[in-house]
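User:
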Amino acid sequence: MSARKPESPAWDGSDSPPFVPESPTADAMETLPRSAPSLAPIRMADVASPDNAEAFQAGADGGHGSETASHPLGDDWPAFTPDPLPQEWVLPPDVYYAFSHARPCPDVFAIHAPDAAQRLELLSRLAVWCSQERWWLIVPDLRRALELGRAWPKSAPRPLLWTHAWQTPAAENPPDILTLGELQNQITAQVRAPLQERLQSLRHLQAITLQLVQCDTLQAELAATLDTLEHTLQAEAEDEHSALYQTIHDQLTSLQQRLQECEARRCQLQEKLRLEQSLATSDPADPNTPRPETSWFARLKKWLLGRSSSPSSSSSAGQASPSPSHPPLATASTGFSSLQDELQATEKELAELRALWQAEYQQLLERELSRRRQVIQDQLAGQRAEHERLHLQRERLIRHLSLAQAEGPDLEQELAHVQRQLREADSLAAEHLQHRLEQVQIFLIPAREGPDMEQLRRLAGGVDRFIYESCEQIPDSVMRPAMSLPGRHLLIGNILPPPSRCWEGNGAVPGLCRLPEATPWPALLGSRLDQRLWVVEGEFLIARLRLVPPEQRFALRQEPLVDRPEVLLRFRDTSDRETELVEIAFPLSWGFAARAFVAQQLEHYRPLPCGPAQWHTTPAGDIRVCWPVVEQAASAHRSESIDWGNGVQEWCLFDGHTFYTAALTFRADGGWDRAAAEAWLQELLPLATRQRLAVVTSRQPLPPISAAAQDSSCSLHSAVDPAPESPRKTGG
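Assistant: Predicted structure:
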């Protein structure tokens, strides 16, 4: 039995339209693994299948077609071949599909990834894989740039943050990100460092020269102070207001007090002697002579002589006073002699105290003089040592600077010359900065920092890829000029617009269903790039039999299937009498039954693989081709085997958003051999694709990144024939 091939296969946006039979067989229901509707012949009899229809029509009428069609890259996308990923990268099929298509795409590719954390992981993994490329990584703002910097892998090239200053606390600065301001400061420092060092050395030399002059002046002052120290000290000691005078007299206080007491005693004794002498020379018969017994003079004498009189003489005087006319001359003579002796002893003591005070005074002066002299001599010695140190340092600086003359005018002239060189070094630093920027691989550009794209391009040079992370948040004033630059452009973010509600009910009203006027520009572009064959829109699973521009989808005519009204057929009128079926909307609950319906009822075969293929031959002779990337996921997630008929069976995975083909089995009893299976699959799955959109919905963390994998190439249809294995059973 020869294998039957579809008359017009179409996959992944190819130009060939899907085949739609004009009259489906009545027994098509028998091949379905579960209950599924049949197409009503009355609806399908009038469906035409035009040949060589364009997948997109540039400048189509309706909606935002004119704005979208004016994109500088246009709608005539060239085909490209997806790249296989490194074998050690175990990724979900949607992530693998996004990576394998995003890197080789020559112009514009979009990744719809609603989860912001997942986008960071995607960019980190892509940076490791594309480590040889130069990127402009444009993000909405500085906050997002810092988040990306913290998640940046160590094995990827270090990004340069295009901002002159941080606007967040320094503690939050990621250590692996260098800002433009920091780089500029580093380069400026490197260029200006020799001149700055020479200028600093010259200024240091100037300061040392000034210090030497000050040191010489201070030495002269200290020497002059030392010469006049004794005279200065003597003057201070005699000045009652000086601190030295107060200090000396404070230390001689006790001796000064003794001296004053001794002087007071001497004065008393001298007064006593004077009184005695006056009494001895007076005439008792003279009436003017005061009487000792009654006059005030007698009382004064008694007070002055009271201490020198003995108690015995006092008592005897009280008992028998001598007659005034007969004074005791012997007693008076004895008292006068005693006073003289006492006065001499007191004067001798006073002389000794004065000599002692003078000796103590001179000792204190000598001690202070010695102390001050030692202080000045120590200062002189320190200044001489400092002078020697400064002189040696000055000589070393002169040799280091290679100066012939280091005097004042020559030094000022050299300083002016170096300062002029520093002013000219700014232009040299700008040249070094541009050279360094040409070596940077990844520029992290916050869009709201207001980057000048032309200036950035002029400074950075050529760029391999422009990446717009969270592109729906990037202002058009930044994104549109960047998109016009030559290079590869990758849009990542929540790109696709929400599903339209125009399809509620049994049909759409032509001319009323439009994309909202406020639809972001990336969403318009993403809708035009979307060439997926199976999509989920709200509660419907859409099978796209023909790809039409997004603005034309709202003009489609929608009708329910007669025997299963929950299934909606969407038609496009190509002329007054011709109509083609372009989409079928299944309830989302149909799942695998929808895919079986398209294959069995329409004989429309559309494998949806991902990654390199491997071929096997079973013991029964069946040919089996599998895609390990999908197989690994299908074994752990919801999957099912679907009989396509004509001896072909598909094992596919449904992730809730689209289908992926894990394996195809070509039964030997259906007439298939290896050559026929390869030829049939080659016709269905061309190596080149025009797909420009990938949807990443899996949110499981990606495996850790090991060392950067080397680029490798692997054919999508490489022939591998390992040991035979039995057909894989349907997953859960």
